[in-house]
Amino acid sequence: MTEPPVQVAQRLRARERVVVNVDTLAARWVGALALLIASSWLTVLMVRAHRDHTDWHTDSRVAWSLTILAAVALIARGIFLGRPVTAAHAIAAATAVLAGFAAHLLAFDLTGDVLIASSGLLLMWPTTARPDPSQLARVWALVDATSGDPVAPFAMQNLKSYFFSADGTAAVAYRTRLGYAVVSGDPIGDERRYEELVGDFTGMCHTHGWRVVVLGCSEHRLGLWRDPAVIGQTLRPVPIGRDVVIDVPSFDLVGRKFRNLRQAVQRTHNFGISTEIVAESELDDRRLAELTDVLLSSAKGSRTERGFSMILDATLTGRYPGILLIVARDRAGRVQGFHRYAVAGGGTDITLDVPWRRRGAPNGIDERLSVDMVNAMKAQGAQRLSLAFAAFPEIFNEKQRGALSAFFYTAIHLGDSLIALESLYRYLRKFHALGDRRYVLLPLRQVLPLLVVLLSLEFCPRRRQLPTESGEDDR
């Protein structure tokens, strides 16, 4: 029998209830003192073993001291990071200690030592923020009020958590992993609240022992995260690419620089391609079946999805408001591809989510869909249309690469199975619309663990929920 939602929520709250809050000066002193005592005791034992000419490697007292020191060091580290202890943490740590003693009784001494030492890690394991899809209506209202930010619609992604300003007129979208709170793009909503919002958000992160990282921060929002007194740490900006944003009112295909783009579009006209625009939430059964067939026959991962900061999920389910699809059909009426766009700023901003095309579809379909979408949105009064994000465009532009650039160029191509950045850039440069830079803001001393965190958020695959698998419409 399925538990009622209220009982499930109560059980989760009990499991996540903080039983010890270590974010105090007294707790830090206790942690430092315990670490000093454990270290001193181990040193004394090793000195005695040396004086008595005994092998300290086989001395059980030294082994126990090392075990206790490891556990205390892990606890002290958690205390200095400000990580709270929940009921679940305490139970897991106690279980590890009991299992360790049991292993010693069964003569598995090394296993027992590892289990007891790991109890310190379990006790101070970082807490996590749960995704909150129930806030979609509130988040959509803020996205709809945010203009000039191509990344704003991606705040709606199903796996993100949210922190709202005191009056609810602005919010930060983020996810937590391994003790880091990774902010997705810029805040959304009323920009007059952003400074206060960032201060409150970083304060909340401090109480949870989370260190803040910002992925996809725009150039004109860097100042929000620059003050160490507010953020509680020093974040350094590292450029990761540039937005590709078309100025819709002035866009046309006139001029030599658009020759390649005109040729690509003309090829699709010669092939008999036509396009239509439809709201994703208004798909009828016939169109839904046709588009699902394209998704499944695409060269991309149709059964899995990836991404965090600049992508939505739930394609074709109609879950998200403000989603438009532009569909390309051949002369026979068969769908050859479609683009998914998100609307923000009350219709002033349009952002490409993911392009889909059937294997073997005619060349130029992506260019045709983008151009037709720009022209259609021009008639609707849109101001900006974001095609995508061009990662590291300078690397692809260089004709003579130095050693460092060559290394990064090779490393980027190793990830072509996940995302072919150079081919994406070649498509985007046809539009001559490179815009503002975006950055990842991070503490440089923690680059290696943060690479693991950020790459796992962006590239770890998740099972895609296909419309035909849901059994019912999410609309």
From TrEMBL:
One of its GO terms (cellular component) is plasma membrane. Keywords: Cell membrane, Membrane, Transmembrane, Transmembrane helix. It comes from Mycolicibacterium aichiense. One of its GO terms (biological process) is phospholipid homeostasis. Pfam families: LPG_synthase_C. The chain crosses the membrane at residues 29-50, 62-81, 87-108. Its main location: membrane. One of its GO terms (molecular function) is aminoacyltransferase activity. This is Phosphatidylglycerol lysyltransferase C-terminal domain-containing protein. It is found in: Cell membrane. It is a multi-pass membrane protein. Residues 145-440 form the Phosphatidylglycerol lysyltransferase C-terminal domain. It comes from the Bacteria. InterPro entries: LPG_synthase_C, PG_lysyltransferase.
